[in-house]
Write a structure and sequence with these properties.
Number of helices: 3
CATH topology of the domain at 33-134: Immunoglobulin-like
Radius of gyration: 38 Å
Number of strands: 17
Oligomer: single chain
Helix content: 10-25%
CATH architecture of the domain at 33-134: Sandwich
Shape: elongated
Largest sheet: 9 strands, mixed
């Protein structure tokens, strides 16, 4: 008896389902691929540092690899180009500063490459990554015209010994808030033109500032393939002055120090003390009077 078409279709579906499950299991059971990653940061054009990330890739996701030893070099892995030896933390990251011993080498070139070597940890082999960057700087300026506040940002990169406009650099421009960067305009990001410049009109009114009404503007370039991460900040008096918070411990409250006790509580306390001592003093006087009366009676008899 020949199987029906429905029977054949059912067998085919089972076969495809089993093949898919086996592929998924094979992916899950495969060993994770470890790696080390470098990110370059330049803050306010005078602080440069690296973030080292040790991680493993499982499928399409990266997981942190904590406690991995990593050595970092500048331009080559020779001993004289050694930057630092570090160990990543629980999140798989470590911060590395460029030492002053490499200052001359850093200043003498417009382009550099950073080399990170992660030590072998069985079953993982030694891993190496190279990050090439071109030195760049970012500048921020402000202006106010007819009540419109404008933020202007300029990005330049070093070409030999000349600073050249950096075009097509995407960045965030906004106001520093406790939760991150609040965009200054309607867009989430802005891109420099051929002159390396981009500008945005601030459309955020009545933003809270500090006690003097100041807040911080920021322009931030994130993970640019040529320049890395650039950040510049500027404080401006464009905010609404925040009222000073009252220090309740300096007021006359129940939980204040003894020198800030409420008057009504002082009145009650001193009244009780005076009443007690007044009663004691009255009783002492009465006892003295009784003794005097006793001596007078005895002298008369």
């Amino acid at each position: 008896m020949k199987p029906s078409n429905h029977h054949k279709l059912f067998i085919l579906v089972l076969f495809l389902f089993g093949t898919t499950i086996s592929k998924i299991n094979a992916q899950d059971s495969s060993a994770a691929e470890s790696s080390v990653n470098l990110r370059y940061f330049a803050n306010n054009n005078n602080i440069q540092y690296l973030l080292v990330q040790s991680r493993s890739k499982v499928g399409k996701k990266f997981q942190p690899l904590p406690k991995r030893a990593v050595q970092v070099y500048l331009d080559s892995n020779r001993a004289e180009d050694f930057i630092s030896s570090t160990v990543t933390d629980e999140t798989g990251t470590a911060k590395v500063l460029i030492p002053t011993t490499l200052k001359d080498q850093w200043l003498n070139s417009a382009k550099h490459k950073f080399i990170a070597i992660m030590a072998a940890t069985p079953p993982d082999e030694e891993k190496t990554t190279i990050l090439e960057i071109t030195k760049a700087k970012i500048e921020i300026d402000t202006s106010t015209t007819d009540g419109t506040r404008t933020i202007k940002v300029n990005v330049k990169y070093l070409d030999n010994k000349d600073w050249v406009p950096a075009k097509d650099v995407e960045m965030k421009i906004g106001v520093v808030r406790s939760t991150g960067i609040l965009s200054a305009g309607d867009k989430e990001s802005y891109t420099t033109d051929s002159s390396g410049t981009t500008s945005v009109d601030l459309n955020k009114d009545s933003l809270a500032g500090d006690l003097q009404g100041n807040y911080v503007l920021v322009a931030k370039v994130e993970d640019n393939e040529h320049y890395g991460n650039l950040l510049i900040e500027k404080t401006v008096p464009w905010g609404v002055a925040r009222k000073a918070e009252k220090n309740f411990f300096d007021q006359r409250t129940l939980w204040s120090t003894r020198f800030r006790t409420p008057p009504w509580l002082l009145f009650m306390a001193y009244s009780i003390v005076l009443s007690v001592w007044g009663t004691i003093f009255y009783l002492v006087l009465q006892i003295v009077k009784v003794k005097k009366m006793g001596r007078t009676i005895r002298s008369q008899t």
